[in-house]
Amino acid sequence: MKKNLVLIILVFALALAGCSKIKSIVSGGGGSTDSKKALCDSLSGLNTAVQNAKAVSTSTSLSQVKQDGQALEDAWTAVQKAMKKMKEADFNDVRNSYKEIVKSLRNATDAATLQQAVTAIQVSGKNFDTAYAKLNASACTTAQPTP
Fold first, then answer.
1. Nearest to 54 by CA among 120, 116, 144
2. In the chain, N or C: fewer CB atoms in 10 Å?
3. Domain total for the chain?
4. pTM flag (> 0.70)
């Protein structure tokens, strides 16, 4: 009789734990606290790299442009790694604007193409800012408890 009671309690506890995990995913929990922190930290790093790329001007050296491009790619790799562990957040807009910025940086090979890159980066940078704010708000901002 005791074994049956223990078994019933164990089954009930496991079922309850499973329900709260499902509730967490349905309510936007999508990943562990560590996964969310990794995502938010990597998004912050990507945002910094994009803001540095947006600061590129026609007086920026081509070697600095290439360094900014590499920093951007490294930051993107970190975001991709963090996103693999998350079930939430549509990051297509972030990815698309990132790709446009990288493409612009890669195409800057002389003064004329640098001018074109600066113009393109400003447009893609604005798109990134909007997408980043949306993703950051949905994935990284913690909801305040209701009183």
1. 120
2. C
3. 1
4. no
